[in-house]
Amino acid sequence: MKLFLDTASAKEIRTMWELGILDGVTTNPSLVAKEGRRFDDVLREICAIGVPSVSAEVVATETDGMVAEGRRLRAIHPSIYVKVPMTPAGLRATKILAGEGTRVNVTLVFSANQALLAAKVGAAYVSPFIGRLDDQSEVGIDLIRDIVTIYRNYRFSTEVLVASVRHPVHVLEAAQIGADIATMPYAVMEKLVQHPLTEIGLARFLKDWEKVPKG
Ligand code: G3P
User: Closest ligand 1 atom, CA of 127?
Assistant: First the structure.
C-alpha cells in the first residue's frame, strides 16, 4: 500500500521522505493557499525532493481550461499527476489528458458510480473523500469497499487513492480493504509511526542496559 501526504508543505514532505515511508503527495487549492507562495514555486520545490507522485489540481471549471492547465502542470515536472474534479467537464478533460499520456487524479469523488466513470475515462487515480462523507453521517469507508470491488470486477487499472483521511483507523481500514493508496495529513502519518508502548518499552530497555557491566 502506498502512503501519500496530503500537504503542500515541503518541510513536512521532506521529513516523511527521509523516513523512507512516503510514496507521494497530494495537494489541493486549499492546501496550496496555506503556503502563501506561488503555486508553481511550491510544486517545483516539492518535486525536487524526489517524491515520485505529486498531484496538482486544476482550477478551471470548463474542459478546455482544465486541459490547458493540465498540460501546463504536467510540463512542470515528470512526477506531476493532474488533479481534475469529478464533473462532466472533468470527465471530458480526463479523457483528453489521459489520451495524451498524462496521469490524471479524479478528485472530489463521493459515490461508487462516480468512481466507475472516472475509471472508464482512463483516470490513473480516483480520490474518494471518506472524512467528508463521515461528516455527513455516511460511512465513508464503505465507499472504498464498493470501489475496490467494482475495480476488481472489471480489472480497471485506476488506483484507489483514499482521501480526506482524518485518523489512523481510516488508514487501517483502507489497508484491510486493499485500497492502493491513502493520502493523509502530516499529523495522521506521525501517528502511524508512534505508539506509547514503543516509547515506554524503549525507555525500559535503555534503563536496564545501564545495569549491564561494561568494558
Ligand atoms: O486532498 C483532499 C482531501 O484529502 C481533503 O481532506 O480533510 O479537507 O476533507 P479534508
Answer: 2
Q: Which domain holds residue 89?
A: 2-209
Whether residue 56 lies inside any domain: the answer is yes
Q: Of the residues 2, 11, 34, 83, which is catalytic? A: 83
Which residue do the cell numbers 511550491 mark?
Answer: 42
In a domain, 215, yes or no: no
What's the domain count of the chain?
1
Q: Which one of 106, 161, 164, 166 would you pick to mutate in the ligand 1 pocket, going by the greatest count of ligand atoms within 8 A of its CB?
A: 164
Q: Is 167 in the pocket of ligand 1 (CB under 6 A)?
A: no
Three-state DSSP class for 205? helix
pLDDT, one tens digit per residue, over 140-175 is: 999 999 999 999 999 999 999 999 999 999 999 999
pTM of the model: 0.95
Residue 87, helix vs strand vs coil: coil
